[in-house]
Amino acid sequence: MALLEIKVNGREHRLEVDPAANLLTVLREQLFITGPKVGCETGDCGTCNVIIDGKLRRACLTNAMTVNGSAIITVEGVGGKGAMHPLQMQFYENYASQCGFCTPGMIMASKALLDSNPAPDDVQIKEALSGNLCRCTGYINIIKAVKAAAKDLSAKGGER
Amino acid sequence: MSELKVVGQNKRRYDGLGHVTGEAVYVDDVFVPGTLTVKVLRSPLHKGIIKKLDVAKAEQLPGVHGVITWEDVPCNTYGYLTLDQKVLAEGDVRYKGEPIAAVAADTVEIANEALGLIELELEKQTPVFDPLVAIKPDSPLVRPEGNILMVGERPYRQVCNGDIEKGFAQADEIIENDFFFPSQEHAPLETQVSLAVPTQDSRLTIYTVTQGMYFLLKQIQRILGQGNDVSERWSQRHQYAHHGLGFSDIKYISCNVGGAFGGKTELHADAITALMALKTGKPCKWRWTREEEQLYSARHSPWLMHFKDGVTKDGRIVARQVFTRHDAGAYTGLSSYVVDKHAFYVAGPYYLPNVEVKCQVVYTNKVPTGAIRGFGVTPGTYACEIQMNMIADRMGVDPWELRFINAMRNQDQLATRTKLDSVYLIECMQKLAEISNHPLDAKFKAMNSDPREA
Amino acid sequence: MQNQDFFAPADLEQACALLADEAIKPLAIAGGTDVMVRFNRHRRRRQETLVYLGKLGLDYIREENGEVLVGACAPLSEVAASALVREKLPLLAKACGEMASPAVRNAGTLGGNVVNNARHADGVAALIALDAEVVIATTRGERVMTVADFAALPKSETLAGGGVVRHFAIAPLLANEKWAWEKLRQRKGESRSVVSVSMRASIDGGKCSVLRLVVGCMAANPFVSQAAAELMTGQAPSEELIELVVQALLTECDPVSDARASAWYRQKATAALVRRVLSQMV
To answer: Among B307, B323, B369, B389, which residue's Cβ finds the most Cβ atoms within 10 Å?
Structure first.
C-alpha cells in the first residue's frame, strides 16, 4: 500500500492506495466521486476525463501515485446546485445529453478547452472533443453547447 | 382556451441536470458497504463438451466468498419465448464467451485470480459460423433439435396472400436480388452492470441497466426458483434456507442507463449477481469490461434477404416473394419474435396482390443475437427500398412514381391479410415532394388513399 | 510511511539503480498511457515495483550546441505546442500533435512511445525520419544510439543497466528542406496509424540531393527506404520516377493484417501516401 495525498475539487484527501491503482478507481471506489465514469479503461472513450493540475487527463490511465500531491477537478467540482457553470447550463439548455454517460467527460474536455481558448471555432471545439465518444447525440448539440458557454463566459468577462 | 403549458413548449430533459452535474446515478455508481466483485469464467471455445469443471481451488483462495456453476442454479434454463438458454453452461458450450462459472471475491484482483484457479477441460468440437453452412444437412449441430427453428411443420415463418406463381406468370419482368444487413454491436458507453443486494426477510434488491424490467424480472424469478408470493411464505422463509423468490421478493431498481439501443434487453448480468448474492449473503456487483461488452453482449444479428419480384411493364409489382435468413447465434433469445415482426412488414407498404414471405431462424455458434433499434423492421426496410429503386432502374420508371403506382391505400391488405384503414402513404409522399421541391406529375398529385376499386 | 511498491526518484542515478535491481521487479512508468492499459486489462495483484520517472526533470525542450533536445518525459502535447519544435522540427510537432487525443497527449511521452516500440508507433517513425539520437542514462554511464538502432535492438541490450531514456537529440531541419508527415488513420482522433509516411528532402538545382523517406506500420519497425534514396538521389523528381520509387518501396515492406487494415489495403495506402508526399518535390 502507498500513501496518496491529493486535492479533489478543492478538498484535501489522505488515503492508502494500491500502488498499481488507477486514479479512476481511487476516485470512484475510495472517495465515492462518481462523476468520472468507467467506459473502456483503455483511454479511448473519454468518460473518465478529469483535470489534473490544470491539464485534461484520463483518470483510467493515470496511476494514482504518479499524481501524488496534485490538484484534481472532476465534473462535481466544475459546478453544481446553486452554482452551475455555463458549460453545465448550456449542455442542459441545448439537449447536449441523452443517456448522460459521456456528459461529465465532455464537460471536462470542454472546460479544459475554454480555460485555454475562450473563443474557439468549430474546428477547435471538434479537436478538443476528439477524444470523447458519444453514442447517443450525434455531437451537434454538444458543439452548440460549448459555443454558447464560450459566449456566456466572455459576456461574464472571463474566467470562472 | 388557456395557453398550453407542456404541449408545443421546449421542455428540458428532467434528468438533464443530473447528467451535467455528475449527480445522475448509474448502476456502477451505487455503492453498498461490503460489496463483492463478481467475475465470470467464459468459454474459450466456440463449441465443446465440458469434460471437467472443478472449482474447489478457486473456492479456497482467501478472499473468495463463493463460486457457482450450473449446479448451483435452481432453474438453469431460461429464455424469452423458447426456454433454451443456460445461465451457466451445462454439459456443453455453444459460443465463445458463454458463461461457465461465476466467482465473488473481496477485490477484482482476487476474483480474476480465482478464475485462473478453476479447472476447466473442454473437448473441442467443430463449430459452424455461417448460416448458409448451418442450414446444410451435414453441418455441425449447434443444438440437438437442429440448426433451424421450426414454426409448426415449417422451417420458417410463412406469411402469404394471393397466389405467388400466378403472380409471377402475369409479370413482364422478374427482378431478383440479395441483400445483406450486417451485424452491429450497440457499444453503449456504459457496459452491462448489475448489483444485487440481499436484504431482510430473504429478499433481494437488484440494481439493473435493463431496458425491459418486466421482461427480465419474470426470467430472474424463474431462474432463482419460482416461489409463491410473500404473504403465503412469510414464516416459512425464516425457517428454511431457500424457498425460491416470489415476484414481490425482488426489488428491481432501474438506474440511469448509459446507452442501450436494444442491447440491454437480454439477461446479461442480473441473474448471476442475484445468484451470487444469495449464495454469499453479501451484495455482489458485476461490471462487464469493455472487452466483454464488445465481444460477448448480444449484438444485432446479420440478415440475409432475397427478394424476387414480378413487375409489369407499367411498373406494377404483381408478385413479391421474400426469403429471409436471420442468424440467431447459439440460442433463440428474441429471434423467434423478431422474424415474425420482420415477416409481417418486410414486403413494404405496397399493394401486393400476390405475396409470399418466408423468414427463417438459423442457429450458429456465435453470441446470441438480440434487439437493436427498429428490431427486425430496419433490415427489411433497407432491403425493400433498395429493391424498389432497383426495380425502378430496370423498368425505366422514376423511383418516386414507382412508389406512387404501388402504394398501399386504405382497405388494402398487408401480407398478413390485415386490412389497413388509415394508410395515407400517398399523401405523405405528396407532402414530401412538396417540401423537397421534387416535381411530381399531375396524376400523382391528384392521387389519394381512397380505397381502390375492386 | 515507506512504500516499497512505488518510487518517485528525483535523482537519475537512483532511478537507474532501482531499474537495475531485478530483485524488486522494477517497472518504469512515465505518463502511464501504455502501462496502465496493460494493468487495467489484467487486474491482478501486482508483483512489480513501480518506478515513476516524472520527478526526474526530464521534460525539458531546449536547444543545445545546434541540436534540439526533447526530454523523454515531455508530454506529447508540449512537444507539439513548443515554439522551438514547431520552428526547428515541424515534422515532429505535427506527428506528436496527431497522436491519440488531447487528454492522452497530456500524459503520453516520446520516451514512452519509443520504449514501448509498438509496430504503429508514430513517435518512433517521426524520430527515425529526423535521424534522431536517443541518450540513455544507465548505471554504467550514458549510452547513445540512433532511434532506428534502438527500435531494432532488444531492450535487454538497449536498456541494460537500469536504462532510463533522458532525451532525444535532433538536428533541426535545414532552411531549404522539404518535409512531410502523413498518417493514414480511420478517424481524426484517437486513431492508431494504419500507415505513416514521413520525409525529409533537399532539392539542389532542380535535382534531389538528399531524400530520407520513412514508412511506418509496414514492417516490424518504421524503416528508411533505401530504394527511395537510391532511385531519387541526384535525379530530377518526376511523376514517372515517383512511380518507380513506389513500386520499389513496396518490395521493402512487410505489412500485416490486423484490426485496423488488411495487408493488401496497407500496400495500396502506402503507395498513395508515398505518391502524395513525393509529389511535393515535383
So the answer is: B369
Residues of B with CB under 8 A from a CB of A: 12-13, 15-26, 28-29, 31, 186-191, 256-261, 287, 289-290
pLDDT, tens digit, for every residue of B340-396? 999 999 999 999 999 999 999 999 999 999 999 989 999 999 999 999 999 999 999
Q: Given A34, A38, A84, which is nearest B287 (Cβ)?
A: A38
Judge whether A49 is closer than 8 Å to chain C, CB to CB. yes
ipTM over 0.95: yes
Global pTM reads 0.94
The CA-CA-CA angle for residues B318, B322, B323, to 5°, reads 155
Q: Would you tell me which CATH number, out of the four given (3.40.50.2000, 3.10.560.10, 1.10.150.120, 1.10.600.10), belongs to the domain A86-155? A: 1.10.150.120
Instruction: Please list the residue range(s) of chain A that carry CATH number 1.10.150.120.
Output: 86-155
A29: its cell numbers = 471506489
Q: Is A41 on the interface with C (CB under 8 A)?
A: yes
In A69-108, the residues whose Cβ lies within 8 Å of chain C are none
Specify the pLDDT at position B221. Answer: 87
pLDDT of residue B342: 96
Beta carbons within 8 Å of A123's beta carbon, 6+ residues apart: none
The CATH architecture that domain A2-77 belongs to is Roll (3.10)
- Chain mean position to CA B250: 24
A70/A58 Cα distance (integer angstroms)? 14
Find, in chain C, the residue whose alpha carbon is nearest to that of A53: C106
Nearest CB neighbour to C103, from listed A22, A41, A109: A109
Residues with Cβ within 8 Å of residue C49, at least 6 apart in sequence: C4, C5, C6, C7, C18, C24, C25, C26, C27
Task: Report the sign of the C-alpha dihedral through residues B269, B273, B274, B279, in that order.
Answer: positive
Sheet holding C178-184, edge to edge: C178-184, C195-204, C207-216, C223-224
Query: Which tens digit of pLDDT belongs to each residue from B85-98?
Result: 999 999 999 999 99
CA C267 – CA A57 distance, rounded (Å):
35
